[in-house]
Amino acid sequence: MSEEKSFDFSFGSLSPLERRRLRFRNIPIRVVLPNLVTLLALCMGLTAIRFAVDGRFETAVLAVMAAAVLDGLDGRLARALKGTSRFGAELDSLADFVDFGVAPALLLYFWALHEIKDFGWFAALAFAIACALRLARFNVMAENPARPAWHADFFVGMPSPAGAVTALLPLYLHLSAMELPTSKGFVVIYILYVLLIAFLMASPIPHLSGKRVGKISRDLIIPLLFGAGVTLLLLAIYPMEVLTVLSVAYLAAIPFGLRRYNALARAEAEKPKAEDAGLAPPGAA
After folding, report:
1. Where are the transmembrane segments (predicted)?
2. What would be the CATH architecture of the domain defined by 26-212+234-262?
3. pLDDT reported for residue 62
4. Half-sphere exposure of 18 (CA within 13 A, CB side)
5. What is the pLDDT of residue 101?
């Protein structure tokens, strides 16, 4: 039987009533809710572009941050409700490209990169392309069952939300008490920095994911809640300064993640050698 005959997409063998049921079958609300959160994140990314066009850059930054928070919630909500779906995964990737590839690139271009038009637009395009490649690679690798279990603790390349947050660091510094200028000499530095973040997104450099953090000890609940509360208060009062600190801290953590990944990779490579040595017969070389 040929491959074309093995699949029947016309439902010709089904009655009209059965065909109608397949076409309009009910979808559980637990599947719909995560997709609604994803669409809300997409709206935040598009709204950030709108505010950037209007020159309201601080509001645009906050819209991108809201999209990042919602992006972190939709996947966890889908797993908690057992509402994951292929449709949701594809929608999430498309929304991430707009929220963390297109929106930050346009925001930076409208803010300062346009001062050096060709080079600035090149940097914006490079960032958006790197985000698209990063998301495509993530989708392909997620379907690879041969990956070791410990790989789930790492991202291959900087994740797109982190790329968007860190790429806006020059804008945070401009909007903060430091008030970095937008003269052409500084814009060249901003462009080089954006290209560096684009490289980190497209590169295979591993980054810690934190997705499999275990349960929290009872002794740490109060300090963690206190720290989270203080961080949220500071974020509300000094948003640009806090985002600057978080971006610098994330960039500083990259070497530690790389070192941890290399240590686990070496341990994985030494396992077969240790097993072969243990199975070797007595007296063997």
Report:
1. 27-49, 119-140, 152-173, 185-208, 220-238
2. Up-down Bundle (1.20)
3. 95
4. 6
5. 95
